[in-house]
Specification:
The chain is an alpha/beta fold. The chain folds into 2 domains: 277 residues, Alpha-Beta Barrel (TIM Barrel), CATH 3.20.20; 65 residues. Helix 2 links the parallel strand 2 and strand 3. The model has no long low-confidence stretch (mean pLDDT 94). Bound molecules: iron/sulfur cluster (SF4) (2 copies). One iron/sulfur cluster binds next to helix 12.
């Protein structure tokens, strides 16, 4: 069993500070290895890496492999639309950038209760239904970032959706904000196919605190923390695709092969590890970067949160973290430069109190 999909969201970069510097030598190898293993689902979006993700799909995938050898999913950034006419413009730009000719799956991107109201006003769901009827895309749906009640409302009001893309991982399974389990149950009730995003929670579950890693290693020494996370999601019968945002060839190779369902003892160990991780993670940011482009102060929010989490887990290591933070802030806004405009919080799919968290980062590291 392997349902892995290749998310073009965290690509290998020649300059880690610049999303526009894709390392194509590495990426081409990753794409080739992925396809050679028999997997064929790729995922991108108009907004990923400021458009670079769609360009990379064209260069590394579309121009190097026959169109029928892969499935490609792209997304309509409804939350950015200013008028109804934007839908067609976004769709055409995505087709042009990717060079794909058509999309196998086309989703309304990042729907939550707020953006859903805008999507209803601007007829985004009607637009994707029309694309499918015209044969310009094969299947449709939406990616979702809210609670199970909102999901139910959307599925009741929007017929014809083939897919729902949900954030599902063992850490968010019972969380009050993400509600992985409850959302999955609603999607199943409506008979929808499920695409999973963030199964490793933006890499957080690949690099768990020492105490959690020990619990997992004791239960199964041959399974890496990232594999535990992927096995948890892959064993869910209604999951059709499990997206992984891979950045290196080694990660691709690690994600290929079979995923064995968890045993009862492993399931218990995972629950125990999850409690430890929740206790030790100061800011549960997934590193998706949705908050970055709209920040007037160019505050590098996810990078600072990642460093802060390292610091919070091991305050004695501040001597290591502080110089790294200083380097990161060169040419960008530091945490102290946040003016509290709220642009970041309005787009954060995890609904994090970013402004408050930046104050904590600033106190510790500025
Ligand atoms: S609240 Fe602060 S971090 Fe967020 S967008 Fe505004 S200035 Fe940037
Ligand atoms: S703060 Fe929110 S939007 Fe920004 S990277 Fe983290 S999870 Fe994504």
């Amino acid at each position: 069993m392997n349902k892995i999909g290749f998310g073009f969201l965290r690509l290998p970069l020649l300059d880690p500070k610049n999303d526009q510097t894709t390392d194509y030598e590495e990426l081409n190898k990753m794409v080739d290895a992925f396809l050679a293993s028999g997997q064929n689902y790729f995922d991108t979006a108009w907004t990923y890496m400021d458009g670079e993700s769609e360009n990379a799909i064209r260069k590394a995938l579309v121009e190097r492999h026959p169109r029928e050898s892969f499935r490609l999913a792209d997304k309509l950034p409804g939350y950015m639309a200013k008028s109804e006419a934007d839908s067609e413009r976004f769709f055409r730009e995505s087709l042009e950038r990717t060079g794909a000719g058509y999309f196998d799956v086309y989703l309304v991107h990042g729907v939550d209760s707020e953006s859903y109201e805008r999507s209803k006003r601007m007829h985004h769901f009607d637009f994707v239904r029309q694309l499918k009827a015209e044969g310009r895309v094969k299947e449709i749906g939406f990616s979702f970032h809210d609670n199970a009640n909102v999901l139910r409302q959307i599925l009741e009001e929007q017929p014809g959706m083939d897919y729902v893309q949900l954030q599902i991982n063992y850490l968010d399974w019972e969380s009050d904000s993400v509600q992985s389990r409850k959302c999955l149950e609603v999607a199943e009730e409506f008979g929808k196919k499920v695409i999973v995003m963030e199964p490793v929670k933006g890499g957080m579950l690949a690099n768990v605190p020492e105490e959690a890693a020990e619990i997992l290693a004791k239960a199964n020494p041959d399974c890496s923390p990232a594999h535990w996370a992927l096995r948890f999601v892959q064993q869910i019968p209604s999951v059709d695709v499990c997206l992984s945002g891979m950045s290196t060839l080694a990660q691709v190779e690690d994600n290929l092969g079979d995923f064995v369902p968890l045993s009862k003892a492993e399931d218990l160990a995972l629950k125990k590890a999850a409690r430890v991780i929740l206790d030790k993670t100061a800011i549960p940011c997934t590193g998706c970067s949705y908050c970055v482009s709209g920040c007037p102060q160019r505050v590098w929010i996810p990078k600072y949160f990642k460093l802060y989490n390292e610091y919070a887990a091991k305050p004695d290591d501040k001597w290591k973290v502080a110089p790294e933070y200083k380097k990161m802030t060169e040419g960008r806004g530091a945490a102290k430069d946040c003016i509290g405009c709220g642009a970041c919080e309005s787009v954060c799919p995890q609904h994090l109190p970013i402004i408050e968290n930046l104050k904590n980062v600033s106190e510790a590291l500025d």
